[in-house]
Amino acid sequence: MGKRPLPPLAVLQAFCAIVETGGFGRAAERMGLTQTAVSHQLSQLEGWIGGKLFDRGRSGARLTPLGARLHPAIVETISQLETALYQARAAVSVRTLTLSVTPEFSSQWLASRLGDFCQRYPDIELKMAVGYQRPDFGPGGVDLAIWLGRAEAGLVMEELLMDEEFVVSSPKLSERLPKRNAIREASLLRYTGMRHTVLDWQRWYEQVTDHDDDGGIADFDIGQAAESGPLFETFADMLEACRDGLGFALVRSSLVAKDIAEGQLLRCFVEVQPAAVSYNLLYPPNALQNPSAALFRNWLISRVNAIV
Q1: pLDDT tens for residues 40-96?
Q2: Which fold, 93-160+278-307?
Q3: Which of 31, 93, 221, 283 is most buried as measured by Cβ atoms within 10 A of its Cβ?
């Protein structure tokens, strides 16, 4: 007994791209297609199913109840298929991967999760270049990069984490802070590789003064306080000092989520600001032809989605 042929894989991938990006235009850009082509692929899927999967409006494409039920199953199926195919290809192909990553992301986010990747793919040799230098994708360079900032022309960029920035302290320090003018009660901590500048502290402090009935602290210079604060060699060192109650740290949400969850650090002020730049995954257009790179990319996206 014959069965009706299933929709092509590209049609299912287009459906997932629309969900993940929130719109047909953005999905088309991600897939390297025209918006018309993406719309046609969705029409194929809706025609095969016999029901509407999206409601379209000015704010983008929103899943219908039918689409919302279908989406998780398609995502899981595609993921399993990709993993099976790449694992098979990896058995007879490239088995190494070189990743460039910043020290903060490596120590505070990736390190605690990397064991899962190594356990899933023990035959892949993962090499890491940890530092602040721009990734070199040339011959003998890296395959993928987790980079804080935008991609250079010609590279694929996938956004990983949209962070917030806020100030943290130890619970002990937080307990003794006064209700007003608390920011001047402890040092502002810094580290040598710091992406945060005096301007970031000033941008955060503007919110404090906006919320302060007296318009802030007349004789307090946040820029001078940031410049004169203790300077540590690494982000990890600065965070350890913050845990020990030595001062305040202006941090990204993704880098301190574990500390906050475990109660080692507290958000000691209500003010929060969107991070000016986000962590992105960068790679050349042909990078995922290396099965090891493709497997790591898919694993990384799944780990990010698991906490969003």
Answers
A1: 999 999 999 999 999 988 778 899 999 999 999 999 998 888 878 766 765 655 588
A2: D-Maltodextrin-Binding Protein; domain 2 (3.40.190)
A3: 283
- What average pLDDT does this structure show over 118-124? 90
Q: Does domain 9-88 have CATH number 3.30.930.10?
A: no
CA distances from 113 to 44, 245, 251, 254, 293 (A): 38, 27, 20, 13, 17
- CA 255 to chain CA centroid, Å, is 10
Those residues whose C-beta lies under 8 Å from the C-beta of residue 252, and which sit 6 or more positions away, are 104, 163, 164, 165, 275
Give the span between the Cα atoms of 286 and 134, in whole angstroms.
19
CATH topology of domain 164-274: D-Maltodextrin-Binding Protein; domain 2 (3.40.190)
Question: pLDDT digit string (tens) for 215-242?
Answer: 445 567 888 888 888 888 888 899 999 9
For 166, the enclosing helix (H) or strand (E) is: strand 164-169
Helix (H) or strand (E) holding 253: helix 253-261
Is the CB of residue 198 less than 8 Å from the CB of residue 226?
yes
C-beta of residue 24 within 8 angstroms of C-beta of residue 61:
yes
**108 in Cβ contact with 99 (< 8 Å):** no
User: What angle, rounded to 10 degrees, do the helices at 65-90 and 291-307 form?
Assistant: 150
Q: Measure the CA–CA gap between 266 and 21, rounded to whole angstroms.
A: 33
Query: Encoding tokens for residue 13?
Result: 């991938």
The per-residue pLDDT for 148 is 87
Query: 15-24: per-residue pLDDT in tens?
Result: 999 999 889 9
Mean pLDDT, the chain, whole residue set: 86
Element (H, E) at 31: helix 24-31
Map out the domains of the chain as residue ranges. 9-88, 93-160+278-307, 164-274
93-160+278-307 and 164-274 agree in CATH topology: yes
